[in-house]
Amino acid sequence: MRTPPQMSPRIPFSTLARAVADGAQPAELLLEMHRDVLAALGGSASVLLERLVPSGPYVATSGRGFTDLGGAWLEAADAERLDRLAATGPALATLDGLAPLQHRLGSSQALVVRIAGPGAPGFLVVAAPAAPAPEALALADRLGLEFGLALELARLGRDAAFHRRIQEVLLVFSRGVSGTLSLDGALRSLAQDVNTLFATARTSVWLHDRRAHKLMRHAVSDGDEEARTIATDSPEPAARGMRLDRAEFIEAGGGRVLIAPLRGWRRALGTLVVEGLPPDADEAHLREAAYEIGRQLSVAIENVHLLAEVMQQRRLLEDIFNSLTDLVVVVDNQLRVVQMNHAFATRASSRAPAELNQSLEALVGPEIAGWVAEEEAAAQEPGGAARSRQFEDDRLGGTFTVTVTPLINQDGDPVGRVAVARDITRQMRLEAEREGLRQQLAQSERLASLGQFVAGIAHEINNPLQGVLGHVELLIDGAEVARPVRATLRQIYQEGDRAAKIVRDLLVFTGSRQMGREKVRVDRIVARSLASRRAARARAHVEVTREIDAEAPQVLGDPLRLQQAFVNVLVNAEHATAEQDGPRRIAVSVGRSAEGMVRVAIRDNGPGIAAEVLPRIFDPFFTTKDVGRGTGLGLTITYGIIQEHHGTISAANAPGGGAQFTIDLPAAE
Question: Low-confidence residues of the chain, pLDDT below 70?
Fold first, then answer.
């Protein structure tokens, strides 16, 4: 037997005392104590074994000389042997029959010291020490007390930290309630914080509805928003918790559930329910913590309920005020804003922050502010009443009907004004669109009725006209008797052919001719239309600029008719620029509209379209040209062709001068 080593002067007790005085962390303290144990007792390694869960295995909570402390070191049943060996004091034990522990230690014998302290017993095990002398055994006996004190110090530190976290959770809850006056939102945050603090599966808060004799789930940590209601006499945990005085563990749903009652000064408020406890949970510790949380939560809930009763009527009035879609603002006699609803604040803050005590003129246009000031003066007069007026206000962004009413206090004195602005922008736009649609419908009806009339006349004229042209052509080509008047006959033929062309245009306008349909690229048709008028534009000194989107989709239609429609508009634009003394320009663009239509825009820099002409510009036979320079059918035919292609054509005066025709055609599927 070898002599035990000289004991180090740094015995564990001095380490413990010095560490406590220096405020060392428990983990650092235990590692220091393990080092002193090995220096004092010898051995290759030391480990502290504790049972964290009642009836569970023993695990290593600290040690020295091991690379891995994880997993179970000793089953509960096997620990009885070590408990018997160390019952009367430290003992050098043979580890036969304890193969897992022997394998972990790498030794067949170990010095076993029972750890003193509350809770489940633990062991300090020193691997392969020398045969201990009596002094070493006495020191080892004291080690149980020293490690027990260190573990108790660590436990107290954990408890203190845990209770600080509880206070932080309750402080956050109180601030949430005070800041938002919303109990449900604060309870949801509390349920999540408690669930994280307890490391459980789910935490929920149930509150008692006295009138309905029901319990309602107001918050749950897992985000489940489904409303749940149970009767107060239900066997569910939330209902059972209302009948308790302190927090308790119960069996429910195949597992242990912690329930804590929420009690006010005079009545039960509800229940805190904690489910899915971790397997190593300290039930006594959690029960005490749940009771403390429930007690302080009850005080907060009771205060919130009292405050809610006081604020209920005010909240109702504020909710009604802020639910109005009309813009409402209240000003004093100096036109300083004293109150506004959400609708007004949202619209007024588009250019400047909408805040109380501002001048009304800082939030609305000067026209409205000036009118309200006039109304203020009128309100001071006896019999002052509400007045209304319509305004277009850029600051509020729209058209409004503003009504101003005197604000009278309890003594009957005017102390300000209440202005209510109703947004009628959409209504005005709808009325404008309705008027436009009404005009389009009238135009379509006029063209439809006129088309039926013209179609009949065109067919009746076309038949005899073709006969006349045929006979004139025969006289010109073959009759000797017609030679002296052949020049006159050619003039007759030209005028007759001109009349026939007018008839053909009328037939196009009425849709009597069959239209072919195929997928075509509008940009190419526009290019051909421009090319066909190149010589005429050159003679008239008209410059064309193009903006063509080659990625514009195809359309389904007749390319020849579409080209005819574009040419008609181009000719109209060329004639309009002829009145210009300076440069003559036409801008053509092909692209996509916001609605996904293929858009062709043709703009000229001519004098534009007179207001009285614009509504009739697509009417048949309507023209502003001199007699003999136009038939008034060009734009009418274009209108009919675009209609046949299920598109739209519109004419307007461009902002920079001149006229613009916009053609929208549906893209091919």
Answer: 1-27, 53-55, 87-88, 117-121, 130-133, 136, 179-182, 280, 350-354, 375-385, 440, 442-460, 462, 478-479, 481-482, 498, 501-516, 620-632
According to the model, what pLDDT value does residue 60 have? 84
Torsional class of 253: left (φ above 0), alpha (ψ -120 to 50), beta (otherwise):
left
Whether residue 559 sits in one domain with residue 434: no
Q: In angstroms, how far is the first alpha carbon of the chain from the final one?
A: 101
Break the chain down into helix, strand, coil percent, rounded to 5.
45, 25, 30
Q: What is the 3-class SS of 525-593, one letter each residue?
A: HHHHHHHHCHHHHHHHCEEEEEEECCCCCCEEECHHHHHHHHHHHHHHHHHHHCCCCCCEEEEEEEEEC
Cα–Cα separations (whole angstroms), residue 497 to 468, 484, 490? 10, 22, 10
CA 591 to chain centre: 33
Is 655 buried (19+), middle (13-18) or exposed (0-12) by CB count in 10 A? exposed
Token readout for 20 is 């406590």
| 444/484 same-domain check | yes
Q: In what order do the strands lie in the sheet with 45-50?
A: 72-74, 58-64, 45-50, 122-127, 109-115, 91-94
Structural element, H or E, at residue 663: strand 659-665
81 plus 129 within the same structural domain: yes
Query: Does residue 28 form part of some domain?
Result: yes
Q: Residue 434 contacts by C-beta under 8 Å, 6 or more apart in sequence?
A: none
What lies within 8 Å, CB to CB, of 15 at 6+ separation is 29, 32, 33, 36
Which of 130, 160, 190 terminates a domain? The answer is 160
Token pair listed for 564: 């005819």
DSSP 8-state secondary structure symbol assigned to residue 277:
-
Q: Token digits for 289?
A: 């913590």
Q: Give the number of other CB atoms < 10 A from CB of residue 98.
A: 21
Model pTM score? 0.38
In which residue are the tokens 């949430």 written? Answer: 176
Residue 333: burial class (beta carbons within 10 Å; 0-12, 13-18, 19+): middle
What's the CA gap between 256 and 242, in Å, rounded? 17
What is the span of the domain harbouring residue 456?
Answer: 428-510
Tokens 């005005």 found at: 428
CB atoms within 10 A of CB 337: 24
Cβ–Cβ under 8 Å, residues 154 and 50: no
Q: What CATH number should be reported for the domain holding residue 188?
A: 3.30.450.40
Strand ranges inside 349-473, DSSP E: 387-393, 398-408, 414-423
| Lookup: tokens for 636 | 């009418």
CB 517 within 8 A of CB 645: no
What contacts 606, CB < 8 A, 6 or more positions away? 573, 576, 577, 578, 579, 580, 658, 659
Q: What is the dihedral of CA 473, 478, 482, 487, to 10 degrees?
A: 50
Residue 23: which residues within 8 A CB-CB, separation 6 or more? none
Q: Which residues contact 553 (CB under 8 A, 6 or more apart)?
A: 592, 598, 667, 668
pLDDT at 588: 93
Q: How far apart are CA 260 and CA 245, in angstroms?
A: 8
Residue 154 dihedral angles phi and psi, to the nearest 5°? -65, -40
**202 membership: H or E segment, kind and range:** strand 202-209
Q: Are residues 387 and 523 in the same domain?
A: no
Measured distance CA(348)–CA(395) in Å, rounded:
7
Residue written as token pair 């051909």: 528
